TrEMBL record:
SUPFAM superfamilies noted in UniProt: Nicotinate mononucleotide:5,6-dimethylbenzimidazole phosphoribosyltransferase (CobT)
Recorded catalytic activity of this chain's protein: 5,6-dimethylbenzimidazole + nicotinate beta-D-ribonucleotide = alpha-ribazole 5'-phosphate + nicotinate + H(+)
Family assignment from sequence similarity: Belongs to the CobT family.
Entry protein name: Nicotinate-nucleotide--dimethylbenzimidazole phosphoribosyltransferase
The protein's role, per its UniProt record: Catalyzes the synthesis of alpha-ribazole-5'-phosphate from nicotinate mononucleotide (NAMN) and 5,6-dimethylbenzimidazole (DMB).
InterPro entries assigned to the protein according to its UniProt record, in alphabetical order: Nict_dMeBzImd_PRibTrfase, Nict_dMeBzImd_PRibTrfase_bact, Nict_dMeBzImd_PRibTrfase_N, Nict_dMeBzImd_PRibTrfase_sf
Keywords of the record: Cobalamin biosynthesis, Glycosyltransferase, Transferase
Documented EC number(s): 2.4.2.21
GO biological process: cobalamin biosynthetic process
Gene, per the UniProt record: cobT
CDD domains membership: DMB-PRT_CobT
Length: 358
C-alpha cells in the first residue's frame, strides 16, 4: 500500500487560511501576507514582536552642486534633528502604529556626537564624494557601511525585534537610486529619473543629463552584477547601510517591509550581493531577497512603479506619497499585523459551525 501523502508545511498553512470563515481568497492580499509570514517563521501561528522602523541618513556630494536636487544638502542634517525631536512624518506614524523608531547617521555632513540627540552614530564619512568627478566612496567604505547595517539589525533582532522597515533621508539620494537601478536592470537612466523632493521640468531635464553623464563616466553598464563596485561609484552611505540591513534581516528571518524608491534601490543592491554570495535561501524555494519582502507602498517617484513592475510585485498601498523616511512602511504595518491577526484569531468553518461550500 502506498504511504499516505503528507502535506507540506506550505500546504498546511494554505489549508488553515482556506478554512477560516470566509470564502477562499476573500481576504485578498492579506492571505498572501499571512502565508508569506507563516513561511518566514515556519509556524502556523506567527507573531510580530517589537516592530521597528530604522531610518538611515546620509549626504551626497553631488547635492552640493544643485544639479540634481531641489533642496540644499543641509536639509539632511536638519531633518535628522527633526527625527530626533519627534517632529517628522515618520515620528507621527510610528507613534500612531506603536513602532519603535531608530535614526542612524550613516554619513551625514554634520557632527551629531556633541548634541543631546538620540541618533545612532554609524558614520562612514561626512557625505559621499561628488560622483560627477570621482567615485562616491571607496570599496572599503562600501563594505564598512554594509557591515554596519548588518550589525545594527543583528542587535535589534537580539533585543527581540522580528519585524522591520527601513527608511532613509538624504538630499540627492533619488539620483544615487536612479543610477543603481539603471545599472542593475540595464534599463536607461531616463526610465528611473524623477522629480525627487520636487524638481520642475527644466530641473528634471538637467538631472537626466547630469545622471547620463555620470552613467557614462563610470561605465555603469559594466557594473550591474558588481554591487560593491557599483556602490563605490554612485552609491550613498545610507543606501549601502540599508543594503546590509536587508541582508541581515532576511538572514535572520525577520519580516521585512520595503518603503519607497530609494529603499527599493537598496534592496536591489542587496539582492545582487545575496546572489553573489550564493548562500542557500533561508526559506525553501525562495531564491531572491525579493521573495522574502513585503512591499509597503508605491511611491509617486516616477521610477518606483517601473522597478516594481520589473520585479513583478504589487505593494500594499498606493497613496501617491513620495516622502521616504520609511513612512510607507510605517503606514503598511497595520495591514501586516491584520494578516497575522486573522491567521491567529479567526474561527475555522469547523470550529464556528459554519457550513462550507458543498
Ligand atoms: O521614498 C521615496 O520614494 C522618495 C521619493 C522622492 C523623494 N524622497 C526623499 O527625498 C529626498 C531625496 O530627494 P532628492 O530630490 O534630493 O533626490 C530623500 O530624503 C528621500 O527620502 C523619497
Ligand atoms: C523637508 C524634507 C523632508 C524629507 N524627508 C525625507 N526626504 C525629505 C526631503 C525634504 C526636502
Amino acid at each position: 500500500m502506498a504511504a499516505p501523502y503528507k502535506l507540506t508545511f506550505e500546504e498546511q498553512l494554505r489549508h488553515i487560511i482556506d478554512n477560516k470563515t470566509k470564502p477562499p481568497g476573500a481576504l485578498g492580499r492579506l492571505e498572501e501576507i499571512a502565508l508569506q509570514i507563516g513561511l518566514i517563521q515556519q509556524i502556523t501561528n506567527p507573531a510580530i514582536q517589537h516592530p521597528h522602523i530604522v531610518v538611515f541618513a546620509g549626504d551626497h556630494g553631488i547635492a552640493k552642486t544643485g544639479l540634481v536636487n531641489a533642496y540644499p544638502q543641509e536639509v539632511t542634517a536638519q531633518m535628522v534633528l527633526n527625527f530626533a525631536q519627534g517632529g517628522a512624518a515618520i515620528n507621527v506614524f510610528c507613534r500612531q502604529n506603536k513602532l519603535t523608531l531608530k535614526v542612524v547617521d550613516a554619513g551625514v555632513n554634520f557632527d551629531f556626537t556633541s548634541m543631546p540627540v538620540k541618533v545612532i552614530n554609524a558614520k562612514i564619512g561626512f557625505g559621499t564624494k561628488n560622483y560627477l568627478n570621482e567615485p562616491a566612496m571607496t570599496i572599503v567604505e562600501a563594505e564598512q557601511a554594509i557591515e554596519k547595517g548588518r550589525s545594527i539589525v543583528r542587535q535589534l533582532a537580539a533585543d527581540g525585534c522580528n519585524c522591520i522597515g527601513f527608511g532613509e533621508m538624504g538630499i540627492g539620494n533619488t539620483s544615487s537610486a536612479t543610477l543603481l537601478l539603471s545599472a542593475i536592470t540595464g534599463l536607461p537612466v531616463v526610465e528611473f529619473t524623477g522629480r525627487g523632493a520636487g524638481l520642475n521640468d527644466d530641473q528634471l531635464q538637467k538631472k537626466i543629463d547630469t545622471l547620463q553623464q555620470v552613467y557614462e563616466k563610470h561605465a555603469l553598464n559594466t557594473l550591474g552584477q558588481q554591487p560593491i563596485e557599483l556602490l563605490s561609484k554612485v552609491g550613498g552611505f545610507e543606501i549601502a547601510m540599508m543594503a546590509g540591513a536587508y541582508l541581515e534581516a532576511v538572514h535572520l528571518k525577520m519580516i521585512v517591509l520595503v518603503d519607497g524608491f530609494i529603499a527599493t534601490s537598496a534592496l536591489l543592491v542587496a539582492n545582487e550581493i545575496f546572489r553573489l554570495t550564493k548562500q542557500p535561501s533561508a526559506i525553501p524555494g525562495w531564491t531572491t531577497l525579493i521573495d522574502h519582502c513585503i512591499f509597503a507602498h508605491t511611491s509617486q517617484e516616477a521610477g518606483h512603479e517601473k522597478i516594481l513592475r520589473h520585479l513583478g510585485v504589487t505593494p500594499l498601498l498606493h497613496l501617491a506619497m513620495r516622502l521616504g523616511e520609511g513612512t510607507g512602511a510605517a503606514l503598511a504595518m497595520p495591514m501586516v499585523q491584520a494578516a497575522v491577526n486573522f491567521l491567529n484569531e479567526m474561527a475555522s468553518f469547523e470550529s464556528a459551525g459554519v457550513s462550507n461550500k458543498e
